[in-house]
């Protein structure tokens, strides 16, 4: 178990505010200050600096945070193992991967590996990264971008990223530029999702943003997005696996764009320098 002062330090890193950290930890602000000073004395380095009332974490503080976050995640994994007779498989997947890619792998794991106790969290990339950091899950399969300084990873698969429209849309035939699409309503995922982030990067390369579209609708459900696009209420950008069935059935059309084909890696990630690195590498093989 990590020292209680460590959790105070991690909370201050999260809030960058001693008063807020004290409030969330249900302790006094002087206690927070005392804990941080004790750690700075122990490690012989400054962990935070102040510019007026603005708190900033130092480089040493960032390095210590990364180390302690990985340690805490490993401890949570170890404690979960001790509590269960079956081997825990606590992981996360982004919406695209969890709902449209992993089904066959989960069928195989549940049918052929009865020693695993499976618990899968489906959420956006941002939330899953936080869940890894706080020990809620051990690893994740994500479509979004992440810090390679904080997480070890293995490439899972490369997935085409496409624009889609209703068969009734004028965009269902012909070839178009990204600028041509701005005249149409667009339906997008929420902030923090890998699909949204990929779209933003694609548009940025053309000096465009989502706000350039005539009308923007934000929906957290891929199924709902597909339904709305089928009804010709907007266009969308998604990974091809999300809409492959609808395209094959003629319910959606891939918009032909006059730019190079877009794709992005789906990635299997866990905390960098984890004690369970080789275990996660073995688990990775189950998803093929």
UniProtKB/TrEMBL annotation:
Pfam families, sorted: HTH_1, LysR_substrate
Keywords assigned by UniProt, alphabetized: DNA-binding, Transcription, Transcription regulation
SUPFAM superfamilies: Periplasmic binding protein-like II, Winged helix' DNA-binding domain
GO molecular function, one term: transcription cis-regulatory region binding
Signal peptide: none
Annotated ranges, domain HTH lysR-type: 1-58
Domain of life: Bacteria
Transcription regulation is among the record's keywords: yes
InterPro entries documented for this protein: LysR_HTH_N, LysR_subst-bd, WH-like_DNA-bd_sf, WH_DNA-bd_sf
Family: Belongs to the LysR transcriptional regulatory family.
Protein's recorded name: LysR family transcriptional regulator
